[in-house]
Design goal:
Elements: E1 3-7, E2 12-17, H1 22-31, E3 38-42, H2 48-60, E4 63-66, E5 72-75, E6 83-84, H3 86-89, H4 99-106, E7 108-112, H5 125-133, E8 137-141, E9 144-148, E10 156-158, H6 164-174, E11 180-184, H7 190-201, E12 205-207, E13 213-217, E14 225-228, H8 233-246, E15 248-253, H9 261-269, E16 273-277, E17 280-285, E18 294-295, H10 307-315, E19 320-324, H11 333-340, E20 344-348, E21 351-355, E22 364-366, H12 370-382, E23 386-390, H13 393-398, H14 402-407, E24 412-416
The structure holds uridine-diphosphate-N-acetylglucosamine and phosphoenolpyruvate.
Length: about 425
């Protein structure tokens, strides 16, 4: 298994190009199931999760071409299987995003239930409840969601909580349904809005995306379209935490600062000097970070996907920060590993109290999930001595060439591949 080896202490200086957002690209790839026509997507990041989704779509009969410049063309004219098998779903929860499109377009789907994962239980009951309200006959059988519907019917759906992939699944189901669907308590995340933008280009009638009430008027068919995936606000935020912890000055290109409000505010509180333009962020850090507490919440609040990275920054801050994780019940797996590097963190339920220490010391640590891995990389860059981050397959699910991007701004970081290890 690949590992990363980091020699801490280098300041980060230079430019990094931000990739397309994983969490926008995944539902958008699945939306290709909604039409027989070709869909051309630009700025698709090269990530393991994207590879898994393309494999999943391929085994259903979706043809795709992937160019080196991040363009992916898909055509679902030859779909012959309406099943998402456990072998693929178990490696990536977002596979559940084929459920809505398959049901809307083919009236049938058999999708393996995703297993429990590192950050929480993550049930899909709201996806099922919404589709059932639209008239689908849905059962759980042998670990699969088995769904059937002649044609889904538009209705009003109020989810019990804000769910990102739930909103996306229901929106993709509703675009081909009979009549109007209203999604109340909808997720406002920029990735949901980006999916809606693609669907509108395909001929869907959607209003209110980006708000908590999305209104969708179903149409009989959708057509081909071309779309550029929005920039990854979490990747950009991760690099900003890295410069916050290691010091230096970086310019992020092809970024979307307008989607990063809560993260930029908190990083400014922590002492980073930040300037933004339409598609760039410049950040400079010349001091010890100030302790900065965060409470995660739905967009536009502070994202749970930035909690671990913000915690890494706080481990070396001046003062004590209180971090509250409100979205996932088990998203503190990085705490134990950060403590192995000398961090002082106490957890009580959803709350972590981080008392900043002057220095972290390099250690061998284990990555347990995607953002936990990123937090360990940040800690390794800021600490003294060598840090080895094991099990980085989690990192490769969601970051494109992270070590190359960090090396290009001066980090001493190497990938040790399985063969060389
Ligand atoms: C591929 C993708 O876009 N992943 C993102 C998406 O995950 P994902 O869409 O899986 O997360 P949700 O927004 O659905 O989860 C929010 C909360 O609702 C709960 N819940 C959700 C659905 C449901 O049917 N029942 C239920 O109880 C979850 O367990 C969680 O506690 O949003 C999360 C929250 O911003 C991010 O951390 C993930 O990076
Ligand atoms: C939790 C994440 O992703 P996923 O929902 O794909 O597990 C994430 O991107 O941090």
């Amino acid at each position: 298994m690949d590992k990363l080896q980091i020699q801490g202490g280098n300041r980060l200086n230079g430019e990094i190009a931000i990739s397309g957002a994983k969490n926008a690209a995944l539902p958008i790839l699945c939306a290709s199931l909604l039409t027989d026509d070709a869909i051309a997507l630009h700025n698709v990041p090269r990530l393991n999760d994207i590879g898994t989704t393309l494999r999943l779509l391929s085994q259903m009969g979706v043809r795709h071409d992937r160019a080196a410049d991040g363009t992916v063309e898909l055509c679902a004219a030859g779909v012959h299987s309406l099943e998402a098998p456990y072998e693929l779903v178990k490696t990536m929860r977002a596979s559940i995003l084929v459920l809505g499109p398959l049901l809307a377009r083919y009236g049938e789907a058999r999708v393996s239930l995703p297993g429990g994962c590192a950050i929480g239980q993550r049930p899909v009951d709201q996806h099922i409840k919404g589709l059932a309200a639209m008239g689908a006959d849905i059962r759980i059988e042998h670990g699969f969601v088995v769904a059937k519907a002649k044609r889904l019917k538009g209705t009003s759906i109020l989810t019990d909580m804000v769910t990102v992939t739930g909103t996306e699944n229901l929106m993709m189901a509703a675009v081909l349904a009979d009549g109007r669907t209203v999604l109340e308590n909808a997720a406002r995340e920029p990735e949901v809005a980006d999916l809606a933008e693609l669907l509108i280009k395909m001929g869907a009638r959607i209003q209110g995306h980006g708000t908590d009430r999305i209104v969708i008027d179903g149409v009989d068919r959708l057509h081909g379209a071309s779309h550029r995936i929005v920039a990854d606000r979490i990747e950009a935020g991760t690099f900003l935490c890295a410069v916050g912890a290691a010091g230096g000055e970086i310019m992020l290109r092809q970024a979307a600062p307008q989607t990063m409000g809560a993260t930029l505010d908190k990083l400014r509180d922590a002492g980073l000097e930040i300037e933004t333009g339409p598609d760039w962020v410049r950040a400079c850090m010349n001091r010890r970070p100030r302790a900065t507490g965060v409470r995660t919440s739905e967009y536009p609040g502070f994202p749970t996907d930035m909690q671990a990275q913000m915690m890494a920054l706080n481990t070396i801050a001046d003062g004590t920060a209180v971090i509250v994780e409100n979205i996932f019940e088990n998203r503190y797996m990085h705490v134990q590993e950060l403590c192995r590097m000398g961090a002082r963190i106490d957890i009580d339920g959803h709350t972590a109290v981080v008392t900043g220490v002057p220095n972290l010391s390099g250690a061998t640590v284990m990555a347990t999930d995607l953002r936990a891995s990123a937090s360990l990389v940040i800690a390794g860059l800021a600490g003294y001595g060598r840090t080895t981050v094991e099990r980085i397959y989690h990192l490769d699910r969601g970051y494109e060439r992270m070590e190359e991007k960090l090396r290009s701004v001066g980090a001493d970081i190497q990938r040790i591949t399985r063969e060389a290890a």
